[in-house]
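Hi there,

I know you've been waiting on this one. I reran it after we fixed the sequence typo, so this is the corrected version. Both the input and the resulting structure follow.
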Amino acid sequence: MLTHELTEEELELEVLDFSDIDLWVQLADEGLPFADGGEVRARWIGGPGRELPAGSVSGLHGPPGWLADHQPGDIVGLRLRDGRLHLEAVDPSVIKGLDKQAAEEVVGVLVDVAQSLAQNALRDYLEDEDDFPGAPLASLVAEVRRSSPGAFRLPLPPLAAMLQALGLEVWRGYVGVPGAPWQGEPAGLDERNRSGLRAWAMSLAMHRTTGDMPEPAELAAVARSLSEDVALESASARIADEPEREPVTAAMLEAVTGVTRGVPLFLLARAAEGSGDLGAMESWLRQAAAADPDLGIALADLAELCALRGDAQQAWQLYQRARTDFRVRGFAVLARFARPPAGDVSRNRPCPCGSGRKDKMCHGRELRHPLSKRAPWVYTKAVTYATRTRQVDVLADFAEILAGEDANRPAVDRAMDDPLAIDLALFEGELMADFVLECAALLPADELVLARSWLDSERRLLEVVSTDPGVRVSCRDLLTDEEIEFLDVTMSRSLERLDLIYGRPLPDGEGALRMMDDARLVPRMMRAHLLHLLTSEPSGEEIVEFFAPRSRLPELRTTEGEAMVVCSARYDVADLDGVWTTLAADLEETAEGMLAEVADVPGHGSVIRGTISRKGDRLVVEANSIERLRRLQQPLLEADPEARLVDESSVPMEDLLADRAKKEARDEDDDDGGEPGPVGAAGGPTGRIGATEP
């Protein structure tokens, strides 16, 4: 018998999460007869009948009403008898009242088998003999039954909870040693960093399973090999939530000197973050930055904490010290707040308080931009929170669905930057609520109130009624028939009457609504399909599945191996001629009003990576990959740190080609007089991403 504690969501969906009962899920792939009639079947993420409990990758679905006699919190037992799966209630007192000697024998076998399988799995993974660092739970159950045939005749506690209580980790149907590298190793590691990361994983596994501590010289060598940001980021994901539970990191700190101390100090900061202690996190980070002033990853984390407090100027300076590139989320938004707003006194005049200091160094520093202007920044802070290591799995689950059934890893990575996946992770995945709870002590009071006001907001399917170009969009909610308007400079100029947009209008703190997440433009032919879905109160997973492509073209790449993406960004700058002159010193003028970044690529000769052109009173950056766009944005923002991002677009080349193919197919259907059927993608990305207006 395998037991499982029921949740409210499982009862609502009539689907049991696989974590405790994976053996039965595996056996039910083709269906198993159910003792009370009908059959139970496995349900897999990405497969037909996708709906699963949050965070599940598979589950067990039975006939209608098969869980009707149970309540949330009930423990049920599932056993296979006479070829049929039996489901029965288990009294918790029966579990507690098990014969002590018999229970200890079973638990002893379970511990020995689980630790052995988990350690062997990690060793095989680190020696490139296997591609995953854990052992399947189904294999664990089978091995325990071989070692002790009567083990699961007793109604033991649920398997996943029991393994976690015994000090092991359970992740998506696998058991592993604590700190197992479930997400794999990051790309771009050199051999030194790769070896160091694997030595770190083995050090943690050894201590957590046997209690043995690596020698100081070994820990010092590991610390030296983790000095690169990409390796240190991955290493930080493998430590326990509380520093006091992770003596290996403390022992490493004792074993090193000089700038190398920055490594364990940073790891302790990330452990403090994991336990929700942002105060301790900041203290460790400041010590890490003092030990190694060039430890970019620590400086960037400090910058994020400063941004949470609303100190954009300090955050900007720390990002610059960290040599942060422009792929950091929200960097362009942050730049708009790096200087306080103008007050009643000139910034260089003496402060009226009589301190004798300039106003900009005294009370002028306390001035804040209006809350309505900071609202996009508050949203960006929440997005940054959602993409940090502790929370990123929630976002990854939505991104995997949005990327499509045939997606590869780069496609999933791109989907993690999609505003729809991010929005659903924040609100349907409840990361916004976690952000409000965990960051309450750091956020300015008015920003905290604003973020709380967003928690009950909903995405809406809106039909454009009219626009006031450069100001607002008036719409009708197609579900409620409510008329609303939201402020948006860019969309108000590009949308037309009867256009359909799907987005989440959020209050800006001063009585207006704004689109923070870049509403998705929905082709009118999909109106009926999307309305039908929304009237059924779909889950976040069902929504993101609706917009996922059913199949993808082969990924196209540039001559330098980057994913080919048609992207651009438009900026308003105060001194157009001055900024242009500065840029022209480093870029080549390939045509009148156009500067280009030209590079020699082995085997391809001179290649234009991207251009900056003058379009009226604006500068437009264009490139065919995200990486190239970011490289060209950097000199522009260095020439004018106060340049205002008007909008930014990013559309993968294969999506454009797929859209063209779909359009041609629809045209052929229309010529034949046929009715277009439902399609999976709402035209792909809209081309209006990240446009956050002041």
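Quick highlight: The first helix runs from residue 8 to 13.

Best,
R. S.
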